[in-house]
Design brief:
36% helix, 5'(3')-deoxyribonucleotidase, alpha/beta, 8 helices, six-stranded parallel sheet, Rossmann fold, globular
C-alpha cells in the first residue's frame, strides 16, 4: 500500500516547538495550556502579536524552528518504519518553502524517518497537495491542516487528521497518538 504523510504537526510537533522558541525570544512565559487551546494553526495570538507581527516573527525564525531540536510525536518514527518493514511505500508531502526542501529531507532522515528521494515532495502550496496525492494514487494520507483536508473530500484515498486544537471541527478519522494508532 501507499501511505502519504505531511510532516509538520503530523509527524513532528513543530507548532509546540515554535511556541517554546517564541516564549524564549519574546522573554515571555505563556503557558502550554494556552497553546493547547489555540484554534488557529498560527501561534502568534498567544503572544499578543497581530497577524503581520506574527508572520514576521515566524519568518525570521524559520531556520531555528525547522532545523533545531523539534521532536517527532511519540511513536511516529516507529509507526512509519514499521510500515516500511511491512513492505509499504511511504511518501512525504510537505508545503515547506522550496528553498528548504533539501535541508528538510536530510533533517527528516536524521530524525529517524525512512525517506526515498523519489518519495519526498516539498515546496508546493497547501492547496496543491491534492494534485500530488491524486497523482501518487495514495491509499492513505495523514495531515493536520483543515485547509488541506477539505480539498481531499472527493479522492479515493483514505484520509486521516492528526489531532490538533485547531482541527477539531474536521469530521474525519483522527490520529490522537501514533503509539496507539491502528487501522
Amino acid at each position: 500500500m501507499r501511505f502519504g504523510f505531511d510532516i509538520d504537526d503530523t509527524l513532528i510537533n513543530l507548532r509546540e516547538h515554535a511556541f517554546h522558541i517564541y516564549n524564549k525570544k519574546l522573554n515571555q512565559n505563556v503557558s502550554l495550556e494556552i497553546f493547547q487551546q489555540l484554534k488557529t494553526v498560527e501561534i502568534h495570538e498567544a503572544f499578543g502579536l497581530d497577524k503581520e507581527q506574527g508572520n514576521q516573527m515566524w519568518n525570521s525564525l524559520l531556520e531555528e524552528i525547522y532545523f533545531t531540536d523539534c521532536p517527532a510525536f511519540e511513536g511516529a518514527t516507529d509507526f512509519v518504519n514499521r510500515l516500511v518493514q511491512d513492505g509499504h511505500e511511504i511518501f512525504y508531502i510537505t508545503s515547506r518553502p522550496a528553498n528548504y526542501c533539501p535541508k528538510t529531507r536530510n533533517w527528516v532522515v536524521q530524525k529517524g524517518f525512512p525517506v526515498e528521494d523519489a518519495h519526498f515532495y516539498c515546496g508546493m502550496q497547501d492547496h496543491e497537495k491534492i494534485n500530488i496525492i491524486k497523482e501518487l494514487k495514495l491509499d492513505f494520507y495523514f495531515d493536520d491542516k483543515p485547509a488541506v483536508l477539505e480539498t481531499l473530500s472527493d479522492v479515493p484515498t483514505k484520509v486521516f487528521v492528526k489531532d490538533q486544537s485547531y482541527n477539531q471541527h474536521v469530521n474525519i478519522p483522527r490520529v490522537k497518538s501514533w503509539v496507539d494508532f491502528n487501522f
